[in-house]
Write a structure and sequence with these properties.
- The protein is an alpha/beta fold.
- It contains 54 helices and 58 strands.
- Strands 38, 39, 42, 43, 44, 45, 46, 47, 48, 49, 50 and 51 form a 12-stranded mixed β-sheet that branches. An 8-stranded mixed β-sheet has the order 36-54-53-55-56-58-57-52.
């Protein structure tokens, strides 16, 4: 195994087949191998299985085997136990990589050579080994011995005799059988520096290197031709351009020419991109050509000559210079130059290699074009095309068919080998036969499409390998990532008739000898349409010469295609196709132009006058005279339009007689200066139905804006740190639009009406100049460079502004800047938006907006699939999801209207126009078809104007010289304005891509209009993208009147402002540039668009011009209207297939049903040529045309006529725009949009109409625009108002209509399967079709997998080695169908983004006034108002304020203070959720704010420990033992200390044990350092806690410790990796805030003593250690200070926490205070007279500066959950310590609804789910059966006392003068009970209780200081309540006995209670009694 086959004897064919079969059956356990004899005899005439495939080297390296033999399933022997298995090392563990051994001195035995081995797992380096040179081939690939002998250069082991054994030793880890030919790749040698480098490849066969060289030249040739000839990539109608760009022009082919070294490449010439690791959505396609290298062992039927012949010889030996030189000539304009270049290309590429016999040259006969009136197109097929000589300018040569053949043979790597039966590509013979089949079934006017042929090839291939493909797909599916697009055989294929069954070549391969007669048999079915030259010719040259001869002799007059097939024994089958049909040749010739070249050719023909003969010809009307003569005789006196008479004559009867006209129709005519027609301006002539609604923002636009915002937030929330929304305080934006003046002004208009600039704060006043708004919109022309440069400059200088670059119409310019000429204007987007400065700016976000996103969805896209936003579907099962009053009508709905069958479709073609244009195309073969078609159509328009105006004598004969469709359009335009009081009309869009032709058409129509005296009837507008909109003053005044504009200077700048103006808009330009059209658009005439460029984007953006938002009126619920019954059955027809917000795509079913189309036809149809001629009906002074049956159709005239009978016409019509929408009760809200004709038949869909009626129903202008004979009013309702509810009609060229309306096998329109854009290519022919069920997201993934950008595309450079994707992190793509409202959506997005940034800069701050302040004011001023620090002596004289003023404690018991009244008696009982309803204010964050984890500015990164360049900061866990008397036992605490914070701690020197936290000395001071350690206890707020103090501290260094519970340690460490954490012991997991504060305080005192001891040991003073700590809440966000101003009083400003700290730390007598704090902020300042007192004594909360030294003996109650700070402050004060509040500082607390110590969950032991348990269930009688709760006993007790104290202490309720006496502790008894706190400690400070009667006594854990004598000092009311609380029942009894309570208090057995805890949860017990 693995030995070379060089030198072996050739075995017989039989032995080889037998050997293969036996081996396959032995190896296979699933697939039955093919019988030996079927292999042997069915393949005898197929000499090579790998014809036509070039070898791809890297592909060869990666897949299993490079031959067509079955891959041998190979299981490697398991390595010996304990040996090394690392890639690049041998099993002995020694390094074998060339990069490691390059400088090592290696010992090579004599006769051995150093060889580089290619390892599949190490692509970047080779493995080094020594191989006996006798087993390697020489430079010609010969003389290699069988077998192997090699040594390992790592461990030195020698004598490996089998390559299999050696590959195991060096850890190659192969999935296929090891072969030395596959893995011994390169000779290695030492260079001049002595380094070991890669040398020449080992030549394993003489021709192998040569084949690769040829493949490389082929690649260079094709890439060059593709780049130089963009038309080759374009999909031309009717041409073989389809999906093909030359197949080798894929990005994986190295484009620069490779250097040749000794006939071999020094580097591999065809490289495979790393597709296999590219992640989901990427294809696994291979290079374009499969293997043509030598077969492996046992494949003897291969010969180098055959393999070489299989390549197109014309590409084998072309030097790159000559290729580029010849191709550059192809950009010339004329046909002659193009054909010369094409012929020169084919001749210069003719092979001169000895691989094939040289072909004879073929002489093109002279006068070919003149004689045949066509320019034949020769499609290269198989084999080299002979050289053309002679009159080569009149023949075109195309390689498109050849490219299709090649790409259809380039199997994807996944299919190249499967199991024992390899999957083969289509054979050459099968391709030729399928091509003949395809050509045979094409219609006489159809042009071949490369996509169709390619799909036929694919279908044939899939059907022949169906079982193998399915077996391949099954194991692949589970391993695939994302959505796996499998290749399924389509059920039917367009282009191939079902009766032509594909030959079953999988069973019986087609042989060359069978091909000619099978092809002849197929061709014979179509007569002379396809002629086959096969048996009688011996070479392609002979066949071509015969073809040219027959053409000259006229024998191919009725032949469209000549197929030449050459089959000779022992030679490759050769073929080519010559197109000889006139129509096909013209279409193919024009498709070879690029769009730019095509327009240049048209300009050239117009400027040189070659079109003049055609124009003269069209001027003649045969027997009816001459157009110019008729126009001169026009009578312009009549003010009224005369009727148009219909005729039975068919348009086909027109005769085209050549009469020279003396007039020059190109003469420029100035507008007639006749005075404008007087128009009545009385109020009754105002139209009440007119309204402009394009300024509205629709609900679906709001939804899309929110989707955009959520995607931006997702980028910000991701861990990649690509967007820090929190660091921006404002939004700025720039909108980039294509260089169209109308699009520019249209965007400015939307911007102005959106109000977004005012919202962003960019504009102050309401009325600003137009120029202000134009600053924010940029046309992408040369002026854009400076604008974007200034934006980049601003972005870099102002990092706090988020700049949004909106790239609107993003599919327009996707050209690479390096390939675009500087003057073309293309490539600007790439140059500006893809520049490094924009890409790297962290505050620039790019939003691409487009209707055609597939141009940006390729394998190398810059936009992540997660950053795509698709326009949602507005309807689901016909339910209006967004409550829109409109329904979008786009391309898919237009297509649906063509399928309904029961009515005239909205999209149609014009047969009479097409037939006339075709006749003239044959008459003028040298003229471009666009010139001919435009001339014909404009003549049709002119004649229709003459006929409709009635001002030409004998006008009844004119209609036969125009088409019915054109006549309908013109008549409707002229009559529409007559029906409305305000002369509202509609727009006709005439699309002419060529600017020159459009200008000519404009001049021509203007002249005819002037001669007919119709200047005031309608406007003719030339829409040139480079020029501003220009319309006449009369029409401008009309629009101003309609829009009620007073500004004299105002002119319309956009098409939207032409709403209701009767006009013809001639829209020019190579492609639409995003111009929106008004809702008055009624006809979209696209008959002149090019049929040459069949890409999906090109087609859909032309059709998108007709996209429309249909207005849906609400109907009265009581009367559904006459037509509603038609819609009952439509629910199933209306359902959308896309369940992921995808209605805008063209693969959708139409929301409008066929019955609605039926209803729409009265106002969308065309005049039928068979309709009955009707007499004139004169009524009043208005001439009208009336159909006899028209009286029945009066309801068509108003979209509001819902009643069963038409309303009297004297009534004013309903006003749809003013009526509020009524509720829709039925499921067909659009029924009233198209009023049903009133007829006798209840359902016109099922009962046929009378002939005249049915025809008239298709008429729009007469039936809806004429008057009834019975009508008495001169005006019906406004035709504009009717049209708003109807989409426009679309007229298409016949060729495009046939393509667009055809469906592929998946049910999608054919156009969706076309190449998305000419700048991309398909990655492989073996791709699946798009599916109808795909969502937009899945379509995106499809295009990302199957399309590759060409080098002209801006994304082609977006490749980075080693990365599977190259997405730009701040780039979004918004896609939605044309005209759906994307501009309004993204403008609204800018507004809400700005609001969100402001919202991010703001927080909800608790803003509550202090409570419980009395009205009286104290007259004593203790400190001067501006005193910086408190004086301890003065502070001692100040009374302590026992009253609690913090509003968060509004629901707790008041503390009794003598002489202090209360307002609490009137307060109702507040519920526990009071803090949820607390008052907040939105405050903008200052620069000194504290932040949560969502803030990531650059300054904070190091502080937070988040730096992308480094790993997360390392932390160490340190245990710390701590003993406290109250804890009862030694507990172990943990500190998590990041490496960066270890300097704050001291560790023991030998073991590194944590000893203490370092504390500064009192005398230490530094301006950038805070002395006091900050402790923040927190729970449940790892994301939302405000622990980022970097900005709050203004960058000062500080010691901050988070105190967390043990079970939350990991999550806090994850979010705050650079913070020190103190982890509470396990026993505190369920504890409250009291436990955390208790531990912090006691640990701090313990640490203080340790630090003093350490200082003493170091010889320093012990007493000088700083004794303070800060206890801070985790919601303190900002700090303020009060400044005193003599004039303005007090002002408050934000200050840093550093400022607060340093001010308090600097207090000279700070050591005298036990506790300091600051007040809570309120927007009202602080209440009453106290605002002048800078310091006060009272309760402190939230932010405490605690002196742990002075407060040593007062502990926090570790058991407390609530009010622990009130309890602690009271005990601290009673101990005589000073408490001081700094009133000059205030803290702002952020409202954080998540986590915190106040979130209590009461749940039962039975379930873990919180249940509603009432407070009465918190306690129970001891030893009773009760529902136990899984809640700490202390919490149950506190909550019970809070909620039920009015039952427990009935005398105390609302009785401030008789409080409850609480000894040594404060417990909350609810807001209605007052507590009097006293301390039992000796020398304590207590209030005077003399004469005070108490209503109750509360003893909680009474200690030894509470004695009977102490209690006897207090007097109680009779019936007062006693409550004694203890830890267990025995201590409870002991307390009662010790305190002699039974003397004065009466107890009952039933008065003993316990908390509702199980015994193991240690319940608390309490006893109640009554005072005697």
């Amino acid at each position: 195994m693995g030995n070379s086959y060089a030198g072996q004897l050739r075995t017989t064919r039989f032995e080889e087949v037998l050997h293969n079969s036996i081996e396959a059956s032995l190896r296979s356990n699933t697939v039955v191998p093919r019988p030996v004899f079927s292999q042997l005899y069915l393949e005898t005439e197929q000499p090579s299985a790998h014809d036509g495939r070039a070898e791809n080297e890297d592909e060869d390296d990666e897949d299993g085997s490079a031959s067509n033999s079955p891959p041998l399933p190979y299981q490697m022997k398991p390595p010996p136990e304990g040996c090394c298995t690392t890639d690049g090392f041998c099993q002995a563990g020694r390094d074998l990589r060339q990069s490691s051994l390059a400088s090592e001195s290696l010992e090579v035995p004599p006769g051995f050579m150093l060889v580089g081995i290619k390892s599949p797992s190490l692509s970047e380096t080779l493995l080094v080994c020594a191989v006996d040179r006798r087993f390697l081939p020489d430079e010609r690939g010969r003389n290699a011995l069988l077998g192997f002998s090699g040594n390992c250069m790592g461990c030195g082991e020698k004598g490996f005799r089998y390559f299999t054994e050696f590959s195991n030793h060096i850890n190659l880890k192969l999935s296929t059988q090891p072969k030395k030919q596959k893995h011994l790749k390169y000779h290695l040698y030492r260079n001049t520096q002595g380094m070991l480098v890669k040398g020449a490849p080992i030549c394993w066969r003489g021709h192998d290197g040569r084949m690769r060289q040829m493949g490389s030249i082929l690649a260079e040739n094709h890439v060059t031709s593709d780049e130089q000839l963009p038309n080759l990539a374009s999909h031309t109608p009717g041409s073989y351009t389809g999906s093909h760009v030359d197949p080798t022009a894929l990005p994986q082919i190295a484009e620069p020419p490779q250097t040749l070294t000794n006939g071999n490449h020094a580097a591999p010439s065809v490289t495979q991109p790393p597709l296999n690791q590219s992640g989901p959505g990427r294809p696994s396609v291979t290079g374009t050509h499969a293997n043509a290298g030598p077969p492996k062992k046992r494949h003897k039927g291969w010969s180098p000559e055959l393999a070489a012949n299989s390549l197109p010889e014309s590409t084998l030996k072309t030097p790159p210079s000559s290729v580029s030189a010849t191709l550059s000539a192809s950009s010339a304009v004329t046909h002659g130059t193009r054909s010369e270049a094409a012929a020169l290309l084919s001749s210069s590429q003719r092979s001169s290699t000895p691989l094939a016999p040289p072909e004879l040259s073929v002489t093109v006969p002279d006068q070919l074009l003149h004689t045949c009136r066509l320019q034949p197109v020769v499609f290269k097929g198989h084999g080299p095309l002979p050289q053309l000589t002679g009159n080569v300018g009149e023949v075109l040569v195309s390689s498109l068919l050849q490219s299709c053949y090649l790409s259809s043979q380039a199997l994807p790597r996944v299919y190249q080998h499967y199991g024992p039966s390899p999957i083969q590509p289509l054979s050459t013979e099968m391709q030729i036969l399928l091509t003949v089949y395809y050509l045979v079934q094409l219609g006489p006017d159809q042009v071949p499409l490369i996509e169709d042929l390619e799909q036929i090839f694919m279908r044939s291939w899939r059907e022949s390998h169906l079982s193998e493909i399915r077996q391949y797909q099954q194991p692949q599916t589970p391993a695939s990532h994302g959505r796996h697009f499998v290749v399924e055989p389509p059920s039917t294929l367009p282009g191939l008739p079902q009766h032509l069954s594909l030959p079953p070549h999988s069973q019986q391969p087609l042989t060359p000898s069978q091909l000619p007669w099978l092809a002849q048999l197929a061709a014979s079915s179509c007569g002379e349409g396809v002629v086959l030259l096969g048996d009688q010719i011996k070479s392609l040259a002979q066949g071509l010469q015969q073809t040219f001869s027959r053409l000259m002799e006229g024998r191919l007059e009725n032949t469209n295609y000549v197929v030449i097939i050459v089959t000779a024994p022992g030679q490759e089958t050769q073929s080519c196709v010559v197109v000889t049909g006139k129509h096909q040749c013209r279409a193919l010739a024009e498709s070879m132009y690029s769009p730019t070249e095509g327009l240049k050719e048209i300009n050239h023909q117009l400027s040189t006058g070659v079109a003049q003969e055609l124009i003269h010809f069209c001027n003649s009307l045969g027997q009816d005279g001459d157009m110019d003569s008729l126009l001169d005789s026009a009578t312009v006196d009549s003010n009224e339009l005369s009727p148009l008479l219909s005729s039975q004559e068919s348009a086909e009867d027109k005769s085209l007689k050549s009469t020279n006209s003396p007039k020059d129709s190109l003469t420029q005519c100035s507008k007639d200066s006749s005075s404008p027609k007087e128009r009545a301006s009385s109020p009754k002539d105002a139209c009440s139905e007119y309204s402009v609604e394009w300024r509205e923002v629709r609900p679906i636009q709001l939804a899309v804006a929110r989707k955009l915002l959520s995607h931006v937030c997702a980028i910000a929330d991701s861990s990649t740190q690509n967007l820090d929304l929190g660091s921006f305080d404002r939004v700025s934006f720039l909108i980039l639009v294509p260089p169209s003046e109308v699009t520019f002004q249209q965007t400015v208009l939307h911007l102005r009406s959106s109000g977004v600039l005012q919202e962003l704060g960019s504009l102050d006043q309401e009325s600003v100049s137009q120029g202000e708004f134009e600053r924010y919109v940029v046309k992408m022309d040369q002026s854009a460079q400076a604008r974007i440069d200034s934006l980049i400059q601003e972005a870099y200088s102002n990092t706090y502004t988020l700049h949004i670059l909106v790239h609107d119409h993003a599919h327009w310019d996707i050209s690479s800047s390096s390939y675009s000429a500087s003057d073309s204007g293309l490539g600007l987007v790439d140059k500006l938006l893809n520049s490094r400065r924009v890409r790297d700016a962290p505050n620039i976000l790019i939003l691409h907006v487009t209707s055609f996103p597939f141009t940006l969805q390729t394998q190398y896209t810059r936009i992540s699939p997660y950053n795509e936003i698709h326009w949602p579907s507005a309807f689901s099962n016909d339910v209006d999801l967004y409550h829109e009053r409109t329904r979008y009508f786009g391309v898919s709905e237009l297509l649906e209207s063509t399928r309904s069958g029961s009515s005239l479709p909205l999209m149609r073609h014009d047969s009479s126009f097409e037939s006339m244009a075709s006749a003239l195309e044959e008459r003028f073969p040298k003229l471009h078809s666009a010139v001919i078609r435009t001339t014909v159509l404009i003549q049709h328009y002119c004649i229709a104007l003459m006929a409709a105006s009635g001002r030409i004598g004998g006008s009844h004969n004119l209609h036969k010289h125009t088409s019915v469709e054109t006549l309908e359009i013109v008549q409707s335009l002229l009559t529409a304005a007559q029906q409305c009081p305000a002369h509202h009309g509609h727009m006709v869009l005439l699309r002419i891509p060529s600017l020159a032709l459009a200008a000519w058409a404009h001049r021509r129509l203007i002249r005819v209009r002037r001669q007919l005296g119709l200047e005031e009837s309608f406007e003719i507008i030339l829409g040139n993208p480079n020029q501003a909109l220009n319309i006449g003053q009369t029409f401008t005044d009309q629009i101003k009147k309609w829009l009620q504009i007073e500004d004299n200077e105002w002119v319309p700048r956009t098409y939207l402002e032409l709403e209701a103006l009767p006009c013809i808009l001639i829209l020019s330009g190579a492609e639409p540039l995003g111009e929106s059209l008004p809702r008055s658009l009624k006809y979209c005439d696209l008959r002149l668009i090019s049929c040459s460029y069949l890409q999906r984007t090109t087609l859909e953006q032309e059709l998108g011009l007709a996209a429309y938002l249909v207005k849906e009126e609400s109907r009265p619920p009581h009367n559904p209207g006459p037509g509603s019954d038609l819609l009952e059955s439509d629910a199933d027809k209306l359902s959308s297939t896309d369940n992921e917000e995808d209605e805008g795509q063209e693969n959708e079913d139409s929301p409008l049903s066929s019955s609605q189309q039926l209803q729409s036809c009265p106002d969308t149809g065309a005049l039928d040529s068979l309709s009955t001629t009707s007499p004139n009906v004169q009524k009043g002074s208005v001439d009208t045309v009336q159909s006899p049956s028209q009286a029945q159709f009066k309801s068509q005239t108003s979209s509001q006529s819902f009643q069963a009978t038409p309303p009297p016409l004297t009534q004013p019509p309903a006003v749809p725009s003013l009526n509020p929408p009524l509720p829709q009760t039925n499921h067909q809200p659009q029924a009233q949009t198209f009023p049903q004709p009133l007829s006798e038949t209840p359902n016109p869909q099922t009962q046929p109409l009378p002939p005249a009626q049915s025809h008239r129903q298709h008429s729009k202008s007469t039936s809806s625009g004429s008057l009834s004979p019975r009508s008495s009013s001169p005006h019906l309702s406004c035709s504009w108002a009717r049209g708003v509810s109807r989409p426009p009609s679309v007229l298409l060229p016949r060729a495009l209509y046939d393509i667009i309306t055809a469906s592929d096998s998946s049910g999608l329109p054919r156009c969706t399967s076309f190449l998305p854009h000419m700048s991309v290519v398909w990655a492989s022919s073996f791709r699946p079709l798009l599916s109808k069920m795909m969502t937009c997201t899945e379509q995106s993934l499809y295009y990302r997998q199957w399309t590759v950008p060409r080098s002209l595309h801006m994304d082609s450079s977006n490749r980075t080695e080693g990365r599977s994707d190259n997405f730009h992190p701040r780039r979004l793509l918004l896609s939605g169908p044309p005209q759906v409202g994307k501009t309004g959506a993204y403008l609204h997005f800018l507004g809400i983004l700005s609001r969100m940034l402001i919202r991010l800069m703001e927080v909800d701050i608790y803003d509550e006034e202090d409570i419980n302040y009395t009205a009286q004011t104290e007259g004593v001023q203790y400190h001067p108002p501006n005193a910086p620090w408190p004086n301890p002596d003065i502070m001692r004289t100040m009374p302590f304020d026992y009253t609690i003023h913090d509003p968060k404690y509004e629901d707790i018991s008041a503390v009794y203070c003598p002489g202090h009244g209360t307002t609490a008696e009137g307060n109702p009982v507040r519920q526990e959720d009071v803090y949820l309803r607390r008052r907040t204010s939105r405050i903008k964050l200052s620069k000194y704010a504290a932040y949560n984890t969502y803030h990531h500015c650059e300054q904070c990164h190091q502080y937070l420990g988040i730096n992308p360049r480094y790993q997360m900061y390392e932390s160490t866990l340190h245990a710390f033992m701590f003993t406290h008397l109250l804890l009862g036992e030694e507990i172990q605490l943990y500190f998590i200390i990041p490496k960066s914070k270890e300097h704050y701690f001291s560790f023991s020197s030998p073991g590194g044990q944590l000893e203490s936290m370092r504390l500064p000395l009192t005398s230490d001071w530094s301006p950038d350092c805070i002395k006091t350690p900050i402790f923040t206890p927190t729970t449940g707020r790892h994301e939302h806690g405000l622990f980022n103090l970097y900005h709050a501290m203004d960058g000062a260094s500080h010691l901050h410790i988070l105190v967390v519970k043990e079970y939350e340690m990991a999550v806090y460490k994850k979010y705050w990796p650079n913070h020190i954490m103190l982890v509470l012991p396990t026993v505190f997991n369920g504890a409250g805030i009291g436990a955390a504060h208790f531990l912090i305080k006691e640990l701090s005192y313990h640490n203080l003593e340790l630090e003093r001891s350490r200082r003493l040991e170091g010889g320093g003073p012990a007493g000088d250690v700083w004794p303070f700590i800060i206890l801070s809440d985790d919601s303190c966000v900002m700090f303020n200070t009060v400044d005193l101003d003599a004039r303005n009083g007090t002002t408050e400003r934000a200050v840093s926490l550093k400022h607060v700290f340093q001010h308090m730390e600097a207090c000279p007598d700070l050591a005298h205070y036990g506790l300091c704090g600051i007040r809570k902020w309120s927007s009202r300042g602080f209440t009453g007279n106290r605002q002048r007192e800078p310091f006060s004594r009272g309760h402190l909360h939230d932010f405490l500066l605690l002196n742990v030294d002075r407060s040593q003996n007062i502990q926090y109650d570790q058991n407390r959950f609530t009010c622990h700070d009130v309890d602690f402050t009271l005990r601290l004060h009673s101990a005589g310590l000073l408490v001081c509040k700094f009133n000059s500082f205030s803290v702002m607390k952020k409202q954080i609804a998540i986590g915190g110590y106040r979130t209590f969950i009461i749940k039962t032991k039975m379930t873990d789910v919180p249940t509603s348990v009432g407070p009465s269930q918190y306690i129970c009688a001891p030893d009773s059966k009760h529902l136990f709760l899984a809640t700490p006993a202390q919490l149950l007790l506190e909550k019970y006392l809070q909620h039920t104290s009015q039952k427990l202490f009935p005398l105390s309720t609302r009785n401030y003068t008789h409080p409850v006496l609480s000894v040594d502790c404060y417990l909350n008894l609810g807001p209605e009970v007052t507590l009097c706190f006293v301390s039992s400690r000796p020398h304590s400070v207590n209030i005077s209780t003399t004469g005070l009667l108490f209503s109750g006594l509360l003893l909680c854990f009474a200690d030894s200081f509470v004695t009977p004598g102490f209690l006897k000092k207090f007097t109680f009311l009779k019936g007062a309540t006693l409550c004694v609380i203890s830890a267990d029942r025995s201590s409870l009894r002991q307390t009662v006995g010790r305190l002699e309570l039974e003397e004065e208090w009466r107890f009952r057995l039933s008065d003993e209670f316990q908390t509702a805890n199980a015994k193991e949860d240690r319940p608390l017990f309490f006893l109640t009694g009554k005072h005697i």
